[in-house]
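User: Once you have settled down, look closely at the record that follows, taking as long as you need, and be ready to discuss the fold:
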Amino acid sequence: MRDKDKQLRSSCTTCECPEYTFNASSSKCDECGCAVTRHRIVQELRVPGEFYSDASASDKVPTPTPTAASTQSRQQQPKQQFRLLPGRSQPSTTPPAKHETVSYDEMISWVFAVALLDIKELLGFRLIESLTLDVCQRQLHLWFPCMIILSFMALLGRDYSEHPPVLSRLYMNSTFVFVMSSFVAYMTYNNSKIQTKRVLAGALIMVNGIMAATYLLLLLRLLPSLPGKQVDQTLEPGRYLTWLASVPALIHVIGDTTTNADNLDMYSKLSYVQLLSMFACSFYPPKDSSLPTLAWIASTFLIGRKVHGLYNDAVANPDTAMMDRRSLTLCKVFAGVGLGLVSLTWFLKRGAVLDHVVAESLYSLGDTASVAGLTAILAFSDIRELEEL
């Protein structure tokens, strides 16, 4: 019932009186005798027929009194449907994302990044300070123009003779393996939530891309072949150029997957000495190339000892290792077999123990183990996140 000020009031907060009763001679309730201010004020809601009680500041208890009309109107309204998303315990009320349009500046930036082979920009790593990414980017910029020059040399002095069937199948299969390995690295980069793993996947995208492009050019005979100093010792300059681009980057990737504590810049530069010594020794018989041979032996020993020590330290100290022990052991096997097989094959080929076809097969196997093998292990292993990234 309403009071003298036409304010609707309900139950009393002092006694059990269910509703205020108007008294013309007094401001108190005619039913219970309590003051009118003891009865809760009832205000109308937006929906006609529904009310709620506006209690005092110390006792705000809602007392809805729905009517038949309001109940019927709510029953006629369709219920809101919610779709539970994976990993969420509450209904999702987020509005659908609007279609994002690429601005003109972003398109120009993307075109320039593609033209300049700026993989860091394309992968969104422009603001991340990573020595491994910087080395991979530098190696890609050195490899690409040199490979174009070699391809032009091959076109100018085109040899239209075909590869032996074994080599053709070998180059075709190797191209497919490294293309698929690049795809695995990209999926790892795209799906991983750990920034450290995304950075390593981005570096392996570049290394696998270099390998895939090299084997494709070898398959198409777009790289020149030079005759060696001995019978059946054909020299492939494109293969040495690919090693010069990929091995230094691979050394930094190995460092980032072990303890990520040592600066391997000196050992990546030492790999230049190793590979250039191998290339120089190919132009001279063994008895006339003692200096390049000694340089190759020393650099190979130092790099091998460092890589072996990195994996042993990481396995012995799991608290500081970037990967779990099983993944580190697999990486050690694949990296050791891959890099060691390339060096051993080169040494045996130079000594006329292996012919060109067998040596190319072993080179391909070593490249696959060291690059594609590490990519597969990275995709299926957990890596510790670094705070500085």
Notes: The radius of gyration is 37 Å. The longest helix spans residues 165-191. The chain is about 55% helix and 5% strand.
